[in-house]
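INTERNAL AUDIT FORM
Audit reference: QA-55
Scope: verify that the stored structure record matches its stored sequence.
Auditor: D.O.
Record contents follow.
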Amino acid sequence: MMAINSLHICADLSYNVKTLLFKQEDASQVHCMSLERSREASRTNVASVATLVALILISTTSYFPTVSVASGNLSPTQVTPIQKFNLTEWSVPTVGGGPLGIGVDPVGNIWATENSTSKIARFDPTDNNFTEWNIPTPSSQPRKVFVEQVSVSGPNEMHVFFTEYASNKIARFDPSSNNFTEWQLAAGSNPVGIYVDENTDIWFTESGRDIIGRLAPSTNNLTEWILPGATTVPGSPALKPWGIFVQVVTKPISGSNRFVWFTESLNNKIGRLEANSNRLTLWDLNSLGLGSYQPADMTFGLVDTFPSAIFANLGSNRISILANDTGGGSLYRESLIPTNFAGPAGVTFDSSRSAIWFAENNAWTIANLNTTSFFVGQLFVPVYCTIAPATGSPSCASPATRTFTIADATETPGVSGTSQIQNPTLTSTIGIYQGPLNGFTEYRLPNVTSRPTSLSLDSRGNIWFTENNVNRIGRLSTPYTFQVSASPNTRNVTQGQNATFRVQTAWISGNPLPVQLTLLNAPSNIGAQFNPQTANPPFTSTLTIVTTNSTPTGTFLMSIQASSGGQNQFSTITLNVQAPQPPPPPPQAPFNYTITVTSTGTVTIAQGQSASFDIAVSLTSGTSQSVNLTAAGLPIDADYSFTAARGLPTFTSTLQVQTDLNTPPGSYSITISGLSTGGELHHPAQEPLLVITEVPRDFTLTAPVTEVILVQGSQTDTTLTVTSIEVFNSNVEFAGAFEPSAPGLMVTFSPSSVIPQPNGGTEHATMEIVAQMNTAGTYLLTITATSGNPSRTHQIMLSVRVSPCLIVTATFGTELAPEVQFLRDFRDQQITNTFAGSNFMDIFNAWYYSFSPAVAQYEYSHATVRTIAKMALYPLIGVLQLASSTYTMVAFQPELAALAAGLVAGSLIGLVYLALPMFSILWLNRNKIDARTKGRVARWITATLAALIAGFIISEIFALSVVMMFVSGGLVLTALGAGSILPALGIVEYFRKKA
């Protein structure tokens, strides 16, 4: 699954500090300061902001110690920005909709939340079609939006997630079924930021309760981390967490973890929560000494090879970059926006341009910051603490804690959407307003009340944004360019005849628009027609020039003009108009003549070149008569002419043959005929031979891999590259086939076809290989790229391996089975979230995966064994469900809950699986067992448990990971032994007494 992040700032985070810190008003009522009011309110606002910031700095003491900051300011070098962008704006169909959050799905559709009218909208740029759905909860005020691809089978196979600020809900919309699902949060939560990780866990900020939340949609499990210094009055935040981004981090021993980045707008801090260990890292911006930063929207990107958090600061008018902490501090860099009080809002990272794009809400401007020039930074040392349970040092202060609940989910199926075509409201070109200045380049929008709020990038590099005040969405796209060329560029024609030219129009960049062709500087008395005359590039048109007997003779230089989008491109052609030869004088008998080819009889040329044959027409007897020369046997798309097509013998002439790139290759015997005015028809004794060789039209197909290894139920992507050879410029389509064929294997291409530019041009496509759970073995994948003729192939050896987990293999052969999902949730959301549980899983995994792959392979090959294994595992699943329930009952203290769950699971597994074999062994040795045996065993088990529990407590206090591995494993094994041997001893004693 592909997750596409679209993190954007909400309209009520204006530059007005008082509103930001103390008001929780509807985004439709609280907007950034408009240009018309700025002059009148500037002095009042500056004074109020300065006073308020001073009061905050005097009255607020930081929870954290002062950070160490190295000296040095940023001095980005100047770069050459894009000089012009094409601007297109569309009005949202619902009047007063107030578009706010925005995101782009993988097929190019634009998704937006309508904050004022509580709707979700989809816009298709290919046909200007808006579709709007009413959110089931009225007046919900949707904020940020996140689009996640769930299938590659169609454009609607995706989920759209968003936050409902006013109704305190997290929502999901399924376009394929028009179903809404809403999860209710506590009153006053006011969720804003949202991010969905690759496990489909939904992460969000509760701005009204100072909480970071995680929701598992498959189980409705809700986990909430209350941040240090959080409010005690829901709806009146002290920290106001806003933007959020989830970074997946994988370590060799601990495995996969989630680093959850977020901003605290009121508290002037950047936070990072490690989901597995509850470790919290905070960077205090107050320590920089520049006043209130008010960090709001954020994203994540690779800046100067460093994975970095990127955030916009409303209070300090800055864009900041914070590299991932490496243990001794973080590299922090910031840059001041050139426009004062710009109100930086939505922010996103453009990896193709190495730039940070953001919206200047107060300045009606879209801007970017070039990151290639960041070389000087500051060392920013954060502080750390651990949210409950406190397994590290120091522990976070009250009220920091973590809670587990079940969220109430409501599904509303089949909500009908309303579609409407909305033609662009404005189409124009905008240039640089300011910059490059300190790395910034600003592009100002024409509407001073537009208030750009959120923005996102599509796959073509277009910048999409919402304009909350004017109810529009907009797009900045790279300038549209195209080219036109004619082939051949010179034609010869006799008065009264026609000449044709092939006109090719190529698309270079931007969003294509219709191109109209026109012929300029044509001589009088000719007709010109293009077929077609207008189309979207790239396309090929045929220009036919029709001459008349009154068309003037001579050489005429003309231009083909291609007009599109306010641009004109030209290609020059030459037309040579010749007069027909005058009629010959009356023949005089006797008259005869001969025709001879005096040059080389065979000429070899390549397509598009010309050839010539020298001819002599000689008088052999009688009075000379005019002889008219013609030629036949030439291939199509080849023109010919004689330097002297008619004359009185004796005379010489040259047959000139002009081919083009589409002339068919081969050998052609040219029949030259001479017809005198008296009717004498003659041919040369030897016909000239024209050999035309083909100009190579070929391409190459390459891929970076020839061997791929997958595990059942996984997928991989690779890039295919098509490179043209010589003049090749045709459509190349992709297809893939597996040998042997298997229904569980799929291969798809995006895009499915490409057209490379000639002379070494390259195009790329992404190939995705999917191996379903019922597939295993070795297959040969043949990728075929076809363009009529030629066709090129590339082969990849694919090895699909059985899932290494024997439980997955035994239970229905899929990781999506309910039993497997339960075991995964029990492990990931309960056990591994504790210090004891995560260390136990380390040693358990080392033991379990030492034999599980071999067992899984054997089960996969034997259906009967799989059935037996599945039946044998159902009691284990029941035991672990009881252990999970035990954990839930003691969840207020997760470390104690993990201990209790381990003891319950170990004892019940021993009872279910080992008690009967143990009874059999003891019964065979019953004569050696007396009444005191059971007491001695019970005391030994009790002493062992006491020692292990003491070790457990010491490991918890001093965070001894290695000790905890063996202590937790010993506790489970001791419980397993107690669960098997004590009941067996009791049963043996009972039957001995009966006997």
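Auditor finding: record pair retrieved intact. The first strand starts at residue 2 and ends at 4.
Action required: none
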